[in-house]
Amino acid sequence: MRFYKNLIPPIWQTARAILQEGAHAHRSIQQLLRSNKKWGSRDRRFVAEQIYELIRWYRLYYEVALERPPETEADWWLMLKTAWLLQGHQPPEDWPEMQGLDSLEIWRRHRVAVENRAIRESIPDWLEERALQEVGEERWAKLLPALNSSADVVLRSNSLKAPRQKVLHRLRKEGLPVELLGDREALVLGQNRKFTHLKSYEEGWFEVQDYASQQLAHFLKPQAGRYLVDACAGAGGKSLHLAALMKNRGEILSMDLSEHKLKELRKRAKRAGVSIIKTEKIPASGRFSPAYYNMADYLVLDVPCSGLGVLRRNPQTKWIIKPEFLEEIQATQAHILREYSLLCKPGGQLLYATCSILPSENEWQVQRFLQSPDGQEFELLKEQHLGPDRGPEDGFYMALLQRKG
Ligand SMILES: C[S@@+](CC[C@H](N)C(=O)[O-])C[C@H]1O[C@@H](n2cnc3c(N)ncnc32)[C@H](O)[C@@H]1O
Predict the structure, then answer these.
(1) Which of 34, 326, 368, 401 is least surrounded, with the fewest CB atoms within 10 Å of its CB?
(2) pLDDT for 55-71, tens place per residue?
């Protein structure tokens, strides 16, 4: 691999803004690439990959390079030298900025550092302790390395527009290297390519949706013609898939606290040929008037969570979240279960889901609800844990509850 020196400062400066000043990773990288239009595609890929590597392996790199987080410009050059060595590349020998630390010393420190799993897998100590306590050694030992791998882009072919095979052929004809994934609607994109300019995308033939998230609609299996409330709908990834399974018959009320996300949902629904979705912003109080109670045949609660199941795509999460945040988000999840479950009609079904791998956001949360006075009317029908240690998907949890009739 050849390294170009002019690319190094933008890499570490952007990584520093993300890791130490809280800038948003994806947006910062997009911004950097937009403001350097002269860079060729190889350089753009290199810059983006190296910033993501620095985010994913931040702790491992700094423990090996410096035994503390980087502070100065010289520290960041040594971080990059360490990163390249550990990635299996030979760093340039004639760059004075990288002379401060000898390669043999880097490998010696690496041997010591990897004895500690939190350092080897590059996560904060509190997270290692918490996950180990909750998930247990057996699963955590497999799950953590899998969460550190990189993930392919997964698409969902839109069955309202065409069967999956037809979508596959059209995308390949348009030059997108896609393969089938699983036996339903999923397609996987072999290499990271732009696709939003394609005619098939504009015509709503497919959406980006992780494989785990695509399992939710099939877990619920909503019947066409029924009334479904998706109460944490965001920009509508699950709502659109649910509408497709309902053959665009019935009614879906997609709600969220964020009007901005609902606006995006409406745009996507139009593109996807979905006409049964209505959107509504939830009041900031997170409480509903009794007019909404006992109405939904199906209630989907894809609640806000830590995002610890999606570290492959958002490695920044491990440096952003803190134990206090987990407590807050779990209180929100409990509130949503308690208040929103009132919308489910007797005999109706409630689906609770998160993209977390922590039992305290998942099955323990559901158990607490079922044991509370508000949960007495519900019973658990089934639950499922998904994750990159088990299949091609992100970490995800789903529980299907039924309200007694
Ligand atoms: C996991 S995301 C939902 C993703 C979405 N279902 C999809 O498939 O793309 C959780 C959503 O819950 C919303 N949210 C946060 N607090 C909420 C609340 N109290 N009531 C309803 N939605 C809330 C967030 O704005 C976010 O869009």
Answers:
(1) 34
(2) 999 999 999 999 999 99
- Which atom of ligand 1 approaches the CA of 235 most closely? 9
Distance (Å, whole) CA 122 – CA 62: 10
- Spell out the domains of the chain, with CATH numbers in brackets: 5-122 (no CATH), 153-208 (3.30.70.1170), 215-403 (3.40.50.150)
Annotated binding site for S-adenosyl-L-methionine: 256, 302
User: How confident is the model over 205-230, as pLDDT tens digits?
Assistant: 999 999 999 999 999 999 999 999 99
Strand partners, 180: 187
The protein residue with its alpha carbon nearest to ligand 1, atom 1, reads 304
Spans of the chain below 70 pLDDT: none
Q: Which of 228, 232, 239, 362 to mutate to test the pocket of ligand 1 (most atoms within 8 A of CB)?
A: 232
Pocket test for ligand 1, best of 253, 254, 256 (most atoms within 8 A of CB): 256
Distance 178 CA to ligand 1 centre (A): 29
pLDDT of residue 1: 74
Residue 4: predicted pLDDT: 85
Catalytically annotated residues: 355
Ligand 1: residues whose CB is within 6 Å?
Answer: 231-238, 256-258, 261, 282, 286, 302, 304, 332, 336
Q: How far is the CA of 210 from the centre of ligand 1 (A)?
A: 16
Q: What is the model's pLDDT at position 93?
A: 84
pLDDT at res. 225: 98
pTM to 2 decimal places = 0.95
